[in-house]
Amino acid sequence: MVRLITHNILACHAKGCTSNNFPLQFQDVSIELREAEFNADFLRGFLPRLEWPALVGAARQLGDTSLPEEQPEMIDDEFLQKLHHVLLEIHVEEGAMVCPNCKHVYPISNGIPNMLLAEHEIG
């Protein structure tokens, strides 16, 4: 499933594409919202691993503006609920992710991203 918790670690790995290859940009997507069990401890533990600007940008591409530009210093329950929704409840079902550098397109079908490369694209 393409959720923003996964998207936040995906970078383009096409041959020769080694800079400006993260984050992948969403294109022509359809999303579905699915409830997920809230776990504040998991979110607090995961927060330091996130690339915050990439997460906020991806959420905005998908129409969610609930997260602040800057990661807040004060982590309260309201913030954790918003983070939970963005990371775990927004599912990209169809569309594509596009590398901002080489423009390689990674299609998403039935919620599954195709990150495979053709033989000539492998570096």
TrEMBL record:
- Which Gene Ontology terms describe the biological processes this protein takes part in? rRNA (guanine-N7)-methylation; tRNA methylation
Q: Which GO terms describe its molecular function?
A: protein heterodimerization activity
Under InterPro entries, the record lists: Trm112, Trm112-like
What binding partners and quaternary form does the record give?
Interacts with TRM9.
Belongs to which family? Answer: Belongs to the TRM112 family.
Quote the protein name from its UniProt record: Trm112p-domain-containing protein
What is the species of this protein?
Pycnoporus cinnabarinus (Cinnabar-red polypore)
